[in-house]
Amino acid sequence: MRYILMRKADADTECGVLPTEDVLQAMADYNERMTQAGVFVTGDGIRPTREGCRIQFRNGEPTITHGPFEPVGEQLAGYSVLDVESLDEAIAWAREWPREDTDGNASLELRRYFTLEDFEPGPALEKHRLQERLPKEMNVHVCFAGNCREAMEFYADVTSGHLEALLTVGETPAAAETPPEQHGNIIHASLNLRGRRLMGADMTGDCYQEPRGAQVHLEYDCPDQAERVFTALAEGGEVIMSFEETFWAHRFGMARDRFGVQWMISCQLQQCVQEYGGVHEVRGPGVLPGAHHRCDEREGMARPEPGMRRGC
Fold first, then answer.
1. 113 contacts 82 by C-beta, under 8 angstroms
2. pLDDT tens digits for 7-23?
């Protein structure tokens, strides 16, 4: 079950006073502990109410009221979303809120999220249940020819992701059935990137095949950060497509790193599908510029169609 842990506002937060370095470090450590325990979903700080507004409806008509709002202590300054087994577990984590925040005088509030099971069955509920068919996670797994540790540590350094698992064969029951010279191979590695995982393992002999036909895609908001990651991944490898402006992204590039893994790095990706005269123009990574596809309703297929490029 999910709970929202709300940090109530105070005079400092409403005045826009930013947390000190000590508070930022303490909160980062707190969030890291919850992440490693598998209970932290997300969390953010919220700017003062004077920079926001309220939208109130009367008979369907909205009225906009700009902040600041009173009383200060009833406003919201930040929140964390926790995925726990019970209210008691949520309280236990709330009790660990960093003392550095307001010298131990912060006000918190816990509220539980509704779930679909709380509602009566019906067509509207079934529409919501369609979302539950989605997998909980979609991760990527790649194989390495004995250099998984080096690769995953490199990826962690480049992306600033959390290398949450780096397990050798020798640390598992599989060691009993594996030659001693292979006990140092990685049997499971996991790099956590904002809840998505790049996983990997070493493969030996004929079991290893160089990755082909698939790329790992990373999206960034900042062009400089995206270019830095692209350059680091391409070093010692191969640039497949230069990192530059395209019609589907502010910046986009493709590279094969020195470990054989292929990457797509993009900044402000803009995918668009435009329909005109029965022709769909498909834009996005991996699609050739000017590519058009006409939908064949009889066969449910899209076939190439020559045509002029058009913008969105």
1. no
2. 999 999 999 999 999 99
